[in-house]
Amino acid sequence: MDAFYASIEQRDRPALRGRPVMVGGDGHRGVVAAASYEARRFGVHSAMPSVEARRLCPDGIFVRGDMKRYARESRAIFEVFRRFTPKVQGLSLDEAFLDVSGTERLFGPAAELGHRLRAEVRETTQLAVSVGIAPVKMVAKIASDVAKPDGLIEVLDDRVREFLDPLPVSRLWGVGPVAQARLAAAGFETVGDVARSDDGLIEAALGEWGLGVAHLARGEDVSDVEPYREPVSYSEENTFSQDVSDRRTLESTVIAHAESVARRLRNDELRARTVVLKLKLARRRAPGPRGYPLLTRRTTLDTPTDDGDVISRAGFALLDRAALSEPIRLLGVGVTGILRAPHSAQQLSMFDRPGGVERRSKLNRALDELRDRFGSSAILRGNLEPERAGLSLQIKRGEREE
User: Fold this and answer.
1) Mean pLDDT for all residues in the chain
2) Could you tell me the pTM of the whole model?
3) Is 208 a catalytic residue?
């Protein structure tokens, strides 16, 4: 989708059409989640700090955004995708891979299908979608980026290398700033440089992982479109508008995140064995967005859980282990070690009080029913709803439609 959040705002609010619109937090720690193409002409882009966006585009209009509305639009768009193929792998709320192999008899060649899909998305939502078509996923992804805004590009099998070769190495999946610098130091600037190189030189620059990068550079991505993948983690996090050292505020935030994660686990009938606490320290040590030290602490539970109280208490213990000596700017709570288990399979700990697990389970079900009926903020444990510096395009498993 093209500038997804901003496009929805411009569609629904005519006064914003043709104006530079930035969706996200506008505070000094806010982050741009989406920028309209009018704003992009000033150099504004997603994931940019809002302060920088305001400097580049002082007349830009900031909109806080409405995640529930954006999620509803995303579901409608994915329903359009599934009219063409059941093999839809969502990458985020506004992006997906579609495997259309074998659909030619119904919809014609892939390019014809792409044009029909674009027309149906526009008819259904009045929003523009850009389409990239290629024999492999990475090339299709890059082609969809190149096709923006509101376009379609098809890269045929025999034109893949011609398409990839002039692109910078940063276009290859997994090549971030560090890997890009290593490749540049070894003389690799473009994808074609990597594709034509001896594997030994790539491995010397990046290690064994570099061999996979070389395959991608040659258009040899063999990964399939995966309509469903088992979840490996669930998490919630937020950036504070002001640095926080107050223990009560930190604990309230842990509770709020733990409850959100636990509810999503229950909705998916899953439990988790490991709790992870993520903390970003307030004092910058180096320039750039990665200049703030990031601490992670984790603990493995005796019994897998979907109970926010259990996750919260584990989070408190991890907070103690972190032994913070300075304020923090970001706090996150996550779980891994995901197990699929119906509620009837709840294992009891030898340290639980008689009936304690059953009482908590009933309480959690009652809270879930209240939130399903009246909204996710109808009732909260703790005394705050964590503030968000920006909005995410992430698909959050286990979130119910409101």
Assistant:
1) 89
2) 0.79
3) no
